[in-house]
Amino acid sequence: MPYRTYNLTEVCNYLHLAQPDVELLVRRQEIPFDKKGGRLIFRKKDIDAWASQRILSLSNKRLTAYHQVSSAKIHDLSKRHAIIAELVKQEYIRPALCSRTKPSLLRDMVALAKQTSLVMSPDDLLNSLLERERLCSTALPEGIALLHPRHHEPYMFEDSFIVLGRTVHPLPFGAPDGNTTDLFFLICCQDDRIHLHVLARICMMCRDTKVLQEIRAAPDAAAIFDGLVRSENETIKRI
Fold first, then answer.
1. Which of 4, 47, 91, 132 is the most buried (most CB within 10 A)?
2. 162: closest CA among 98, 103, 83, 217?
3. What dotted CATH number matches 83-238?
4. Cβ neighbours for 54, distance < 8 A, ≥ 6 positions apart
5. Would you state the torsion angle of the CA atoms of residues 114, 115, 117, 118, taken in this order, to the nearest 10 degrees?
6. Which run of H or of E encompasses 230?
7. Helix H segments across 6-147?
8. 48-56: long-range contacts at Cβ-Cβ below 8 A with a sequence spacing of 24 or more?
9. What gap in Å lies between CA 201 and CA 186, rounded to an integer?
10. Domain edges within the chain
11. Burial of 24 by CB count in 10 Å (0-12 exposed, 13-18 middle, 19+ buried)?
């Protein structure tokens, strides 16, 4: 049946993809489709050609990850749950980044994020970070920046995570107090609710504990991670 067409539900079943994934491909015009009376129509011959070129050419790892995107983990966002300790791992921390400019810093942070194996599209992540920084710098007083993509698109990450970089040389990053920045959190969350919760938690930690001093004095990634855990536990006790 070469002239067969699918509706949205049928094409999702045919491709073994979740509906939000297909809808995203439609919005980005990355899958062939037509519209009839406001309804999405997919022609089988076009979909077969697209699938063979786009999906079947992916490596096994990327193909598996792509199918897992719609199965994001559910994170506990209750007040006393240690979300930072859950999203950061020791291997997600670089205590000696050599970045000297904003563009090089963003590239280095994306490279670090890529090493988590949770990033689906590093190029899209970098572009989204650049877009966000063009709107307004994510640098804050006290020499920290809370980097994050402009849009929280689930397709970018297999799960939410945070990476942390400490630069060897502080660099101008547009902080409101005019000072340089040396501590960079890259916050990659699958939805706004997690993102806002994480931002609030990090800000509370920086305000209420000595975590920034501990991070700067820490000799290695393990000590930085331990400092983050202590700071979050201390913050939770005060809630």
1. 47
2. 83
3. 3.40.930.10
4. 30, 31
5. -50
6. helix 221-238
7. 8-15, 19-27, 44-50, 60-68, 83-87, 102-114, 122-135
8. 51/15, 54/30, 55/15
9. 14
10. 5-68, 83-238
11. middle
Alpha helix segments (H runs only) across 115-164: 122-135
Residue type, 17: L
User: Residue 42: what residue type?
Assistant: F
Report the candidate in 103, 191, 180 with the shortest Cα–Cα distance to residue 141.
180
User: Do 5-68 and 83-238 agree at the fold level?
Assistant: no
The two three-digit tokens of residue 20, written as one number: 């939000």
Fold assignment, 5-68: Arc Repressor Mutant, subunit A (1.10.10)
- What is the predicted pLDDT for the residue at 54? 61
Distance, in Å, from the CA atom of 100 to the CA atom of 201, rounded to the nearest integer, reads: 28
Task: Collect the ranges in the chain with pLDDT lower than 70.
Answer: 1-3, 16, 49, 51-73, 152-155
Gap between the Cα atoms of 229 and 40, Å rounded: 48
pLDDT tens for each residue of 14-57: 776 788 888 988 988 888 999 988 899 998 878 876 765 564 44
pLDDT of residue 190: 82
